[in-house]
Automatic annotation (TrEMBL), chain A:
Gene Ontology molecular function, alphabetical: 4 iron, 4 sulfur cluster binding; metal ion binding
Pfam (any one): LUD_dom
PANTHER family: LACTATE UTILIZATION PROTEIN B (PTHR47153)
One GO BP: lactate metabolic process
UniProt keyword annotation of Nucleus present: no
Keywords: 4Fe-4S, Electron transport, Iron, Iron-sulfur, Metal-binding, Repeat, Transport
Stated name of the protein: L-lactate dehydrogenase complex protein LldF
Segments crossing the lipid bilayer: none
Organism per entry: Alkalispirillum mobile
Keyword Iron: yes
Taxonomy, superkingdom: Bacteria
Chain ranges of the 4Fe-4S ferredoxin-type domain: 304-335
UniProtKB/TrEMBL annotation, chain B:
Molecular function as annotated in GO: oxidoreductase activity
Residue ranges annotated for the Cysteine-rich domain, each copy included: 12-89, 141-224
Pfam families in alphabetical order: CCG
Signal peptide segment: none
This protein's name: L-lactate dehydrogenase complex protein LldE
GO cellular component: cytosol
Length: 475, 259
């Protein structure tokens, strides 16, 4: 997937002026927030579960090489193959080669964020394969030729009318010429179309929510069951997963599963939780003939070694974006890459570079709601602030803001001078406000006003000088 | 250090740069509340700003310098108190700035441990549950500013204190805990996004039926008042300390004299 993170400001602006999107965001936000709240409130051991999850993740990350090697070993025992991809290009090549060797022509794909991250679809399409997404949300945005805007609900930004139009346009070639408008009808039509794709596909690609080191299992959770068909019907099953997805054992996995569903959709557990342990064995009625796992690094081992390690605890539940007021205002596409919202604002600059994604760490009020809901207690605001620190050290940021900050810092270190500057400024602004108590034009550029606000003006005298006078009177 | 019991604790007031420049009334209200609760209040003259703008912009060096000056200015007091959850939030972060210097780190931690946001200080530390003597006619709603709420756990305290104000009726607005879009430099750097967020807030405040909007952080209050006044809303905006100290009888934030 191509990055548009450098266009954040323009894209956010467009999103704010897109009434359909605003409508869709409003609806989605409330649903997720309320459902999660109810689900975690009903769980008395929720906080203890979070602590346990943090321990599990930290322990695994500390011994990541050990668990990855155990996992590889177990997959091999089960008859599968593990491939290691250092970066996105290597991951694409590996997937393409597997498809080529299998002489595949068509591929079906379950939802995989890391697949989007490394650009699996584009690579396969370039190689002449037909790729069809089987997750309904992913399928819809594939038809619309858009990237996902949410990691749990990729097409959350689309309205029913838009989906109805898309299906009407693309399904005619399969003989569905009637324009449908009701949700169940739309889902049904997509199911019919996808059924043909399932049956004819040579390769099925899925992501993974967890990779279990002790038994080599790969676990995915869905609400549509599409992952099960994608992985069992075709001849070849390819799993794409980031290296941080490994978990020591089944016991630990269940702890994380209990948090995942509740944080993501407010479900105690998702409709389908499926374990895959490798290719078809003798006597199995179904299952793929070949089973491959592509373990993708793509910057993760660097994170493991620096102050961003905690980000690798992320289980991709999406709670942080559902609760982020900035995401709620502008939606996922403004972030310009696979991962939106708070977790994306940390991951994108680390993966694509501080400059490409320079706005993302800054476009945050540090309000901390994301951290409050993150099931694995990732200190997202601190990580964003660390990124700002890196940007500052790299001398990024506009000249104007750097100068402004420098001047302010210089003054703030000189109390007498600072006092004088504040007094002048307070008087000046108070004078401008006159009897109105606020001004609608700022002396130095009007950025604040672009938000549809006026600026309340100072009272006139500063506290420090008024206090001094009063103390004089008292003494 | 300790002071004789008769005098009550000696409190250093961190005024906050916004209160100093924009709304001295909040500073005086804070002093009155602390004195009513039996404290001796002083205002260290070296203070300028807690350093939060630098810290949040990634300029850790300037932030550390300002932190050092706050630490030095306030070390001699029993407590540091401020009418701002956000500034106290930054004082609590000071130890993080001195990972290379154990001496400063421990001084920072020592100060952080005795630094409190005003409402939390009055209730959690002083247990001053019946020292409020104020009257305010109106129906007020309270915005939970993010730093106070999430870094310091302030939610119950201001509400409990407001209960003691005669004539005041407290109503809750929807999403009281959701950010108003201020975020320090955020509102200047991304004014449109911030504008959209504060618009939601202004609407929630109005929908609650309240005629007064209260909060504990001047930054957020300026932001929300800025939106309400631009929209021509009659909702008045005050810092909670002004109401509690019976000093909310002049114009609200952004209101002119003639309202
Ligand atoms: S950062 Fe936390 S809340 Fe956000 S997706 Fe990851 S696990 Fe979920």
């Amino acid at each position: 997937m191509e990055s548009h993170s450098h266009e954040f400001v323009q894209r956010a602006g467009a999103a704010l002026h897109n009434p359909t999107l605003q409508q869709a965001l409003g609806r989605a936000k409330d649903g997720f927030v309320l459902k999660r709240f109810n689900a975690v409130s009903a769980l008395s051991e929720y906080e203890a579960l979070r602590d346990r999850a943090v321990q599990i993740k930290n322990h695994t990350l500390e011994h990541l090489d050990h668990y990855l090697l155990r996992y590889e070993e177990a997959v091999r025992r089960n008859g599968g193959v593990v491939h290691w991809a250092a970066d996105a290009e290597e991951a694409r090549n590996i997937v393409r080669d597997i498809c080529r060797k299998a002489e595949a022509r068509s591929v079906i794909k379950g939802k995989s964020m890391v697949g989007e991250e490394v650009g699996v679809n584009e690579a396969l399409e370039e190689a002449g394969l037909e790729v069809v997404e089987t997750d309904l949300g992913e399928y819809i945005i594939q038809l619309a030729e858009e990237p996902p805007s949410h990691i749990i609900a990729p097409a959350i930004h689309k309205t029913r009318e838009e989906i109805s139009d898309l299906f009407h346009r693309f399904h005619a070639k399969y003989g569905y010429t009637q324009r449908l408008t009701e949700v169940p009808d739309l889902v049904n039509e997509a199911r019919q179309v996808l059924r043909q794709k399932y049956l004819s596909a040579d390769v099925g690609i899925t992501g993974a929510n967890f990779l279990v080191a002790e038994n080599g299992c790969n676990i995915i959770v869905t609400n549509e069951g599409n992952g099960d068909l994608t992985s069992t019907l075709p001849r070849v099953h390819i799993v794409t997963a980031g290296i941080e997805k490994v978990v020591p054992n089944m016991e630990d996995t269940t702890t994380l599963l209990r948090l995942l569903g509740r944080s993501a959709t407010g479900q105690d557990i998702t409709s389908y939780t499926t374990l895959f342990s490798g290719p078809r064995r003798e006597g199995d009625p179904d299952g793929p003939q070949e089973y491959h796992v592509v373990l993708i690094d793509n910057g993760r081992s660097t994170m493991l070694a620096d102050e961003f390690r905690e980000m690798l605890r992320c289980i991709r539940c999406g709670a942080c974006m559902n609760h982020c007021p900035v995401y709620g205002a502008i939606g996922g596409h403004a972030y310009g890459w696979v991962y939106p919202g708070p977790m994306g604002s940390v991951l994108t600059p680390l993966t694509l570079g501080l400059r490409e994604a320079k706005d993302l760490p800054n476009a945050c009020t540090l309000n901390g709601r994301c951290q409050e809901v993150c099931p694995v207690r990732i200190p997202l605001p601190d990580l964003l602030r660390n990124l700002r620190h890196r940007q500052f050290q790299a001398r990024m940021g506009t000249k104007r803001s750097r100068w402004g900050l420098a001047l302010w810092g210089w003054l703030a270190r000189r109390p007498a001078m600072y006092r004088l500057a504040t007094r002048v400024q307070a008087r000046l602004l108070a004078g401008m406000g006159g009897k109105r108590g606020h001004i609608s034009k700022l002396p130095l550029g009007g950025n604040w006003m672009a938000g549809g606000r006026v600026m309340p003006v100072p009272e006139g005298e500063t506290f420090m000088s008024a206090w001094k006078k009063r103390q004089g009177g008292r003494g | 250090m300790t002071t004789p019991d008769t005098q009550g604790p000696k409190v250093g007031l961190l005024v906050t740069c916004l209160v100093d420049a924009f709304r001295p009334n909040i500073g005086f209200a804070t002093v009155r509340l602390l004195e009513q609760a039996g404290c001796t209040v002083e205002v260290p003259q070296q203070q300028t700003c807690c350093g939060q703008p630098a810290y949040n912009s990634g300029d850790n060096i300037t932030a550390a310098e300002l932190a050092r000056s706050v630490i030095t200015a306030f070390e001699g007091y029993d407590y540091l108190v401020s009418p701002s959850g956000s500034c106290i939030g930054s004082v609590h972060k000071y130890p993080d700035l001195f990972q290379q210097s154990p001496e400063w780190e421990s001084r920072a931690r020592h100060l952080a441990d005795r630094s409190y946001e005003l409402f939390s200080f009055l209730t959690d530390v002083l247990g001053a549950n019946d020292t409020i003597r104020a009257r305010f006619e109106g129906k007020a709603t309270y915005h939970d500013s993010c730093s106070g709420l999430r870094q310091l756990g302030i939610k119950r305290q201001p509400r409990a204190l407001l209960q003691q104000v005669e004539g005041l009726k407290l109503v809750e607005m929807e999403d009281a805990e959701v950010c108003c879009g201020f975020g320090g430099t955020f509102c200047v750097k991304y004014p449109e996004i911030s504008g959209r967020m504060v618009d939601d807030k202004a609407q929630a405040a109005q929908a609650s039926g309240a005629d007064t909007l209260l909060g504990g952080d001047l930054g957020c209050l300026l932001n929300m008042a800025g939106r309400l006044k631009a929209a021509g809303s009659p909702v008045r905006v005050y810092h909670t300390a002004e109401v509690l100290a019976d000093m909310a009888h002049g114009p609200g934030l952004g209101d002119g004299e003639e309202r």
